[in-house]
Amino acid sequence: QITEALLKERDKQAKWNGIPLLLQKLYEHSHPNSDFSQCQSILKEISPLLSMEAMAYVTEDRKAAQESTFPNTYTFDLFGGVDLLVEILMRPTLITQKKKQKISDDLIKDCLSILYNTCICTEGVTRRLAERNDFVLFLFTLMTNKKTFLQTATLIEDILGVKKEMIQLDDIPNLASLVSSFDQQQLASFCRILAVTISELDTGSDDKHTLLAKNAQQKKNLDPSRAEINQATLLNIPGFIERLCKLATRKVSETTGTSSFLQELEEWYTWLDNALVLDALMRVANEEAEQSSTESSDESGLANTSTRTQLPQSMKIMHEIMYKLEVLYVLCVLLMGRQRNQVHKMIAEFKLIPGLNNLFDKLIWRKHSASALVLHGHNQNCDCSPDITLKIQFLRLLQSFSDHHENKYLLLNSQELNELSAISHKANIPEVDAVVNTDRSLVCDGKRGLLTRLLQVMKKEPAESSFRFWQARAVESFLRGTTSYADQHILYCIVDSECKSRDVLQSYFDLLGELMKFNIDAFKRFNKYINTDEKFQIFLNQINSSLVDSNMLIRCITLSLDRFENQSDAKVAEVLSECRLLSYMSQMSMRMSFLFRLINIIHVQTLTQENVSCLNTSLVILMLARRKEKLPFYLRTLQQMEYTEKYPGFILNNFHSLLRFWQQHYLNKDKDSTCLENSSCISFTYWKETVSILLSADRTSPCAIVSYIDEAYMDIDRDFSEE
């Protein structure tokens, strides 16, 4: 509505660079019956003004960039440019006539590029677009067109990143045929977008949320979450998982030929998000050019041609790494979701594990070359380089794959499975059913299985490496459950105490616990390694420094000691008498000290996924006492310890509340109690009975907690909610 004259007059002074006038022209040429022929030339004038700003934003330090203003993109949005482009893009969907308007691919590309550049530079634009559900779903339909796929995918990813409500994949028109129209490269890019739609929004701090709050949340939301519905939608797309497994396991040499690859790079060049990758590409080119210029002039001609042929290869590897990252992430989320068993079956059938095993040395754990491609402004060892992210994603996948699932034996090869059987025979122990039932046609091939390869790199990993945590988690996950004695033979990793990181330390304790549980040879070996009082003291200090981190190891030692004491075997008796660790734990005073502290460091209001194990470990100690009919003695001792601390009732009242919460938490029909059974080899029924006996209201019962709290100090009737 503003006159052209006014816009012209104001333009220079306001530094609008003619954008409002161009928008007015664009508006006139894009009315419902126009053929859009003029629009493209107008957009070609606007585009460079915006892309220069966006380029500056991406290459500059982002923080500095945010502080500076971006006048062109701001002006473009201020005068309604964003809404106008959305209208132009969506125009064909509004027309009901038989003769549908066709917008050219180039026009679509230009509209998307300009929208993306404005989103990058101007606050609030992405959020505004995200609120328009019709537009977001419409963008997915543009992905069927190969020519505009890259631009569309990048814009969708940006929009979904800020969208408050997760989209429902079911709402995307013809999702199954859309996915089947993608080639493998497009499918990998699509996985980037899917990642946002299948992950629970607050997974980042999952361990830190109190269980009370989580339980209350679960009661409110009995229906599956949007993320869970989206996971189910994906699993129902025919062939989807099979294609992901193929993508995850294909070799770099199987990717498409160089020509289309370079053509795609040119598209990337116009497409800003990937300027970083090109940045890296240019740096490699320069390095190689410098190397060749130092050689004699005769040879440099040859060197230059080799640079040309080598470049795409090094770039291809990076490309492949970035693809695999997205695919492994999606597989990992699906493996941890509600349809876990179905996904497991499919992943095994499509040979994901043997495929990853074959890629292990060449791609996943490859040695860095001198010119390893690194993203702009990062070094190759920083945690966000794709090489490192791929390794961590791979380890997370292994962890979820082998966690409490029989398919974990697919991580071995046939020879290693035979060794497991041989060890079982030699030790006179029946073979684990899962080993016998493992389908040999689906296991790893080659000289070594995936688990063995993982152990080899783990032993070489520097002490402070960020991989140590994930490696230990993946191995511990394989050992978890009703571990067979033979599994533990495979693992000869010694945990060293030079570790400073709490997370890594915790994963070491957990791994050590799984390695040693019920394994008399492991205790013997432990004693050989920790062979002086000084070393043993250091080890105890590590355990005592944080019981939240070390309680799984305490649980393992307690359970093992109980089993060994009930065996009449000369070798076991010898280790029992010699092993420092078992002797230490067999002292009643030590067990009571651990029990007292484990109950004291947790309260119903502060229970999280991370520290609830302390409650379960204290229960294990008391269940073993109940088996020996010593439960009253333990409760009386706790009562005496309270009196010594001059604070009667404070431990037992707290324990009473914790056990009431335990019932509420673990007797919920959705809760999986098999983990508790498998890790302790104590039936869940016995867990439940023990808790009921402890919580009995009968003050004359010698096994009820209330019998040991004086009336005056009784404080057990309070109800807890997450306030």
TrEMBL record:
<feature type="region of interest" description="Disordered">
    <location>
        <begin position="288"/>
        <end position="308"/>
    </location>
</feature>
<protein>
    <submittedName>
        <fullName>Short transient receptor potential channel 4-associated protein</fullName>
    </submittedName>
</protein>
<dbReference type="Pfam" id="PF12463">
    <property type="entry name" value="DUF3689"/>
</dbReference>
<dbReference type="InterPro" id="IPR022162">
    <property type="entry name" value="TRPC4AP"/>
</dbReference>
<keyword id="KW-0675">Receptor</keyword>
<dbReference type="GO" id="GO:0031464">
    <property type="term" value="C:Cul4A-RING E3 ubiquitin ligase complex"/>
</dbReference>
<dbReference type="GO" id="GO:0006511">
    <property type="term" value="P:ubiquitin-dependent protein catabolic process"/>
</dbReference>
<dbReference type="GO" id="GO:0019902">
    <property type="term" value="F:phosphatase binding"/>
</dbReference>
